[in-house]
Design a protein that fits this description.
By secondary structure, the chain is α/β, with parallel strands linked by helices. It contains seven helices and nine strands.
Length: about 200
């Protein structure tokens, strides 16, 4: 078998490398990480909201159970925008349970600020730019193209005051009030868990 000249061999090597790189640029796939399950301790976090206020899980839990709602993006995900608007509209009802809610996304602070100012939202939206909290909760989308890389999957964790995940309600739609009612019920149940820790 005839050996390729060095120049041709180099060209084929570069061509192969470019093909590999273009495939990786098109779609990124991450290895799955261990899912956080009900009954486990919730990973701690400290992030800033749209008003540059710092929120830590530990501080939030001092006031009552917490719902941590992960969304993909307030910038390009219309479902996420609808979800955060509705949570903000029902914030008083949510807080009346003794619980709190925060939204976590990977958007940079300036995009979060722009969106919340435009829609006049009061719900805290925490910017997790490097996706560390998203990863800690095993919520990063495992596959993605373009803007989706680094974003979270949709999901909610309801955490009681002792820091234990008590439920992961599946909030299918925010077009009606049913998803908010489900979240309020989950926060009430988490509050009861602290009154009856053996349950």
């Amino acid at each position: 078998m005839k050996k390729l000249p060095a120049v041709h061999a180099l060209r084929w090597a570069i061509f192969g490398l470019l093909l590999t790189m273009s495939g990786q640029a098109g779609e990124a796939t991450l290895a799955p990480v261990k899912e956080i399950t009900v009954g486990e301790r919730a990973p701690s976090f400290t992030l800033k909201d749209q008003n540059d206020r710092e929120f830590s899980l530990e501080t939030l839990l001092k006031k009552g159970p917490v719902a941590v709602v992960f969304i993909r993006s307030v910038d390009w995900c219309s479902y996420c925008q609808l979800q955060t608007v509705q949570l903000s509209d029902h914030l008083a009802e949510i807080r009346a349970t003794g619980g709190q809610v925060v939204v976590v996304c990977y958007d940079p602070p300036e995009k979060v600020k722009r969106f919340t100012a435009r829609r006049k939202l009061a719900v805290p939206i925490l910017a997790d730019v490097d996706s560390k909290t998203i990863d800690a909760y095993a919520m990063r989308a495992l596959k993605g193209v373009g803007n989706q890389i680094g974003s979270a999957q949709h999901g909610t964790f309801v955490i009681d005051q002792s820091g234990i995940v008590r439920s992961k309600p599946y909030l299918t739609s925010f077009e009606g009030d049913s998803a908010v009612e489900m979240l309020i019920t989950a926060l009430r149940d988490a509050a009861k868990q602290n009154l009856n820790p053996n349950k």
